[in-house]
Amino acid sequence: MSNFTKTKTTTTTTTTTVRAGARARRGSGSITRVVVLGAIAIAFISPIIFMIVTSLKTRADATAIPPSWIPNPISLQAFASILAPGTATPVLQWFANSMVAAALNATLVVITASLAAYPLARMQFRGKNFVFVIIVATLLVPPVILVIPNYLIVSELGWLNSLVAIIIPTAASAFGVFFMRQFFVGLPIELEEAARLDGANRFVIFMQVVLPLAKPALATLALLAFLGNWNDFLWPVYVLFSPEVQTLPAGLSTLQSANAVRYDLLMAGAVVASVPVLALFIFLQRFIIEGVSRSGVKG
User: Fold this and answer.
1) With a threshold of 0.70, does the pTM exceed it?
2) With 90 as the cut, is the pLDDT of residue 102 above it?
3) N vs C: which end of the chain shows fewer Cβ within 10 Å?
């Protein structure tokens, strides 16, 4: 065998060995990633599973020590108690109130944020940058500081103990303006210029060109606004007094007292409260992923 043949054979063997080692390292790395991601997923899912399990327990089983992961026996009494009509805790009414308030608030946030963000992204006027800086600066103000001023305003307007009090005050979102402005800046301006050459005015361009491209961002903002209003606890406690106008997070707090906590009822209420949120995320996740991956530009 010639030296050339021996060298070629050695090189081929070495290359095969290197490739095999690389595949082994990739396989080991993949297994490690799966294990790590699986552990993270279990850490995040475990509270949800425990919530569902506890909601299916009896009152005695829910307070047993140590707690168990398997209800024995499986009981729907907690759901029957909180969903029964005519009770002192009208969970279905709270659920309806939360749905109405969160849906209307998310709608108003999307409208006001998109209308305010487009001029900041595309139009030129004196003081534009200053206005944007002021809007962003308000994000640094802790929301709890605004509770008393907002309460006084709502009281003067006669909105106390009504759903209007939890819909209107947060309808203008500084984060929404910032979020939509950043998205509008990333859109190709050539599309708007082409529409302007065709004779379209600013409003037509905004409604027929910009907003259709911004559907992923609008869906993401709507989801965030819905979640923020749906999960809000402190503000409804201050402005809603009657049981029939309470929202779900504030109403569920009445299921516990200083001396006794009905964990089965609380977890059943939490399951009811989590259903719309999970359903909304599943419905909108396509738009959210599209907004992240394609930056709002459709081919």
Assistant:
1) yes
2) yes
3) C
Residues contacting 259, CB < 8 A, separation 6+: none
The per-residue pLDDT for range 29-48, each reduced to its tens digit, is 678 888 888 888 888 888 88
Q: How far is CA 256 from the centre of its chain?
A: 27
Q: Are 225 and 106 in contact (CB under 8 A)?
A: yes
By the 8 A CB rule, do 267 and 78 touch?
yes
C-alpha 268/C-alpha 55 separation (Å) is: 5
CA distance 137 to 67: 46
Q: Look at the block and give the residue holding tokens 């969970």.
A: 91
Choose among 226, 218, 241: nearest CA to 277.
Answer: 226
Helix 91-122 crosses helix 174-186 at what angle (to 10 degrees)?
50
Q: b/e per residue, 212-226, with b = 16+ CB within 10 A?
A: ebbebbbbbbbbbbb
Q: How many residues does the chain have?
A: 299
Other beta carbons within 10 angstroms of residue 198's beta carbon come to 9
Answer whether residue 236 shows pLDDT above 60.
yes
Dihedral, CA atoms, 100, 105, 107, 113, nearest 10 degrees?
Answer: 180
- In angstroms, the CA 246 to CA 240 distance is 6
Sequence letter at residue 185: V
Residue located via tokens 């595949």: 23
Contact 159, 190 (CB under 8 A): no
pLDDT tier, 113 (very low <50, low <70, confident <90, very high otherwise):
very high
Q: Rounded to whole angstroms, what are the CA distances from 13 to 3, 18, 23, 216, 278?
A: 15, 9, 15, 52, 54
